[in-house]
């Protein structure tokens, strides 16, 4: 894989998709449909998916592509592929809360190695560079050239007082019970894959997810977190969260800075 080309293409497509998403977000009203799994989908999901999938297929025609909005791709099998969630946090989008993201990632050998997470309403852009180091880009976020970037890395916090980030839309008692095992300095909530990015930048130390997610929900954020020195493991046995599973469904997991000593499930 030409990582320089990959990162350039993923970054540009995420910005193009973000522009389309914000165009629809700015409308007075937009249609919301319900998919077969009862999750919502909007015109923004579909428009962003069209931009990203066509761009990736043109640039990397020989690489398997999995995208949330194209059910035909969910039958694909392999451990190396591009995977897309064109609008993660659709509920946040519908309720105009701003915590939604564009997610594009490359999985190699079951591991997310490169990824882009772009939050267009917040003008926050996180991505892995060709060398695998994760950065946050600041400034105007122009499509043709990368602006000012700063390397990001996870915190060095120990268990004496942790910053915990949890889901804004999917918080439950089981999550609260698990968090209660830790000495918590403070808690924050965020929607979509921004939770991974908050751990990646050191703004949070741990993100436990005891709820259903799919690989396209997590791959880009997982890649960004890996490139910042963090990790994601299964909740039940703390083994690495792997990708390319038969139905692309994830088990419960924990994203964290390695300085955190994880408590048992």
From TrEMBL:
Describe its function.
Converts adenosine-3',5'-bisphosphate (PAP) to AMP.
Give the similarity note: Belongs to the inositol monophosphatase superfamily. CysQ family.
The catalytic activity, as recorded, is:
adenosine 3',5'-bisphosphate + H2O = AMP + phosphate
Molecular function (GO) terms for this protein are: 3'(2'),5'-bisphosphate nucleotidase activity; magnesium ion binding
Question: Top EC class per UniProt?
Answer: hydrolase
The biological process GO terms on file are: 3'-phosphoadenosine 5'-phosphosulfate metabolic process; phosphatidylinositol phosphate biosynthetic process; sulfate assimilation
Q: Where in the cell is it found?
A: Cell inner membrane
- Give the protein name, as stated in the record: 3'(2'),5'-bisphosphate nucleotidase CysQ
**Organism expressing this protein natively:** Sulfitobacter sediminilitoris
Pfam families named among the record's database cross-references: Inositol_P
Membrane topology term: Peripheral membrane protein
The alphabetical list of record keywords is: Cell inner membrane, Cell membrane, Hydrolase, Magnesium, Membrane, Metal-binding
Q: What is its main location?
A: membrane
Q: What cofactor does this one take?
A: Mg(2+)
Q: What is its EC number?
A: 3.1.3.7
Q: Which PROSITE patterns match?
A: IMP_2 (PS00630)
Q: What are the leading ranks of the lineage?
A: Bacteria, Pseudomonadati, Pseudomonadota, Alphaproteobacteria, Rhodobacterales
PANTHER family in the cross-refs? 3'(2'),5'-BISPHOSPHATE NUCLEOTIDASE 1 (PTHR43028:SF5)
Residues given in the record as Mg(2+) 2 binding sites? 85, 88, 217
The entry's cellular-component GO terms read: plasma membrane
Positions binding substrate in this chain are 68, 87-90, 217
**Binding-site residues, Mg(2+) 1:** 68, 85, 87-88, 217
């Amino acid at each position: 894989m030409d990582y320089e080309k990959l990162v350039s293409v993923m970054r540009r497509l995420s910005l193009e998709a973000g522009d389309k998403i914000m165009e629809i977000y700015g409308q007075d009203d937009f249609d919301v449909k319900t998919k077969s799994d009862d999750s919502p989908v909007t015109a923004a999901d579909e428009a962003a998916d069209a931009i990203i999938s066509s761009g990736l297929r043109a640039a990397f025609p020989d690489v398997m592509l999995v995208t949330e909005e194209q059910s035909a791709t969910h039958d694909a099998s392999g451990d190396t592929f591009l995977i897309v969630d064109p609008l993660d946090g659709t509920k946040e989008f519908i309720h105009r809360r701003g915590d939604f993201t564009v997610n594009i990632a490359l999985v190699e050998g079951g591991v997310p190695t490169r990824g882009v997470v772009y939050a267009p309403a917040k003008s926050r852009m996180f991505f892995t560079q060709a060398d695998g180091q994760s950065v946050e880009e600041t400034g105007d976020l122009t499509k043709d050239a990368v602006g000012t970037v700063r390397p990001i890395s996870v915190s060095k916090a120990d268990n004496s007082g942790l910053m915990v980030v949890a889901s804004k839309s999917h918080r439950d008692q089981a999550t609260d019970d698990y968090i209660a095992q830790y000495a918590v300095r403070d808690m924050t909530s965020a929607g979509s894959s921004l939770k991974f990015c908050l751990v990646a930048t050191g703004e949070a130390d741990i993100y436990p997810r005891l709820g259903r997610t799919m690989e396209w929900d997590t791959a880009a954020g997982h890649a960004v977190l890996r490139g910042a020195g963090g990790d994601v493991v299964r909740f039940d046995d703390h083994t690495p969260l792997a990708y390319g599973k038969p139905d692309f469904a994830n088990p419960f997991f924990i994203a964290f800075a390695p300085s955190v000593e994880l408590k048992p499930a």
